[in-house]
Design a protein that fits this description.
With about 375 residues, the chain is mainly alpha-helical. It is built from 14 helices and 2 strands, in the order αααααααββααααααα. The protein has helices at about 5-20, 45-60, 70-95, 105-115, 125-140, 145-165, 180-185, 215-240, 245-270, 285-305, 315-320, 325-340, 345-350, 355-375; strands at about 195, 205. A two-stranded antiparallel sheet has the order 1-2. Strand 1 and strand 2 (about 205) form a beta hairpin. Helix 1 runs antiparallel to helix 2 (about 45-60), helix 1 packs across helix 10 (about 285-305) and helix 8 (about 215-240) packs antiparallel against helix 9 (about 245-270). The radius of gyration is 21 Å and the shape is globular. The model has no long low-confidence stretch (mean pLDDT about 95).
Amino acid sequence: MKRYESLDILRGLTVALMIVVNNGAGSVRFGTLSHVQWAGCTLCDLVFPTFLFCAGVAMAFSLSHFDRLDKAAAKKIGKRGLLIFLVGLLLNAFPFYPLHPDPELSFSENWLHWAGHLRIMGVLQQIALCYIFGAILVLTLRKTSRIIAATAILSILYTGILLLFGTAPGPFTYEGNAANEINTFLLGKDHVYKTLTKADGSITGFDPEGLIDTLSAICILLIGFLSGRIIRTASSAEKANPALAGEIKREAALKIFAWGAICIFSGLFLSTWIPMVKKIWTTSYMLFAAGFSMAMLALFIYIVDIKGKGQWFYPFKAMGMNPLALYCMSWIVAVTLTGILGFDKNAVFGGNEYTSLLYSLLFLSVHLLTGIVLYRKKIFIKL
């Protein structure tokens, strides 16, 4: 399978940004490297969906030798999805014992309490679920028109659930959205990102990578798959007409960019009624994030695949060849550094947004260098 350098670079850049935004210092983060409190969108809020989009693009290539959902395809999809989910769960559990035990409890009591409050979902877990259900859909539906229809149905279904089951003060608010209640019911209030006490005194859970909002997240993966299908079609045309390769790539980039622009403006238009909320993956946010991802992919196809400037982004290409490994490494290093070794990054780098950014960049540089070393030694860790 031919590799697309533009996709590797975009994926590597996305992983780099994920590492940066997840590893600041102090309570004040640098500008757009902070999530919005609720409604709205910053660069930080577009990082994870772009990674999910890239997974969808890659899926168009990795599943290309399956023409339907047969036993072999189901085995590959299930195995890879479950492995990714398990790795995400193990990251949540690392270092596999409570870092802040209650001194009044025994070790076994502390451990049981910690295990009973382990978060189930997370970034990798949501990617895994999106991959499993997205792959099943594309191999079952196959035709582009049907996949587009499925994407629309999923987004309408999810919006309908939020509208139908939302409560005061509103279906798209922090306290009133139905995703909180459904995720808490399915996962349990002790296994979500954090608990929330509502105005009536009841306790529910909140998880920005929950189960029910995966319905919307799948849509971004499917849009990524359709973008990958455009690239695959262009690749076939290049083989048949090598002399027109440049023109064919330009047409593919323009097509992806045009669809991206439609998604962006559709998201902005819908945001008048359905606010952009990353934490519950509202449809307006999903469309805007998918459109942004498509525009970025089209840009990198132009710069890298058409203009041949891939060397400008060499470190990100290296990261893009080992995205999951480097993401996992960043998690383990962060927990080891601050949780196990006790390094107080907030005291050292938490003075203001610029010192926080400095810590993020220093942390990223370690992973960039690791990615480059792995790439040069041709070590590629995949699931």
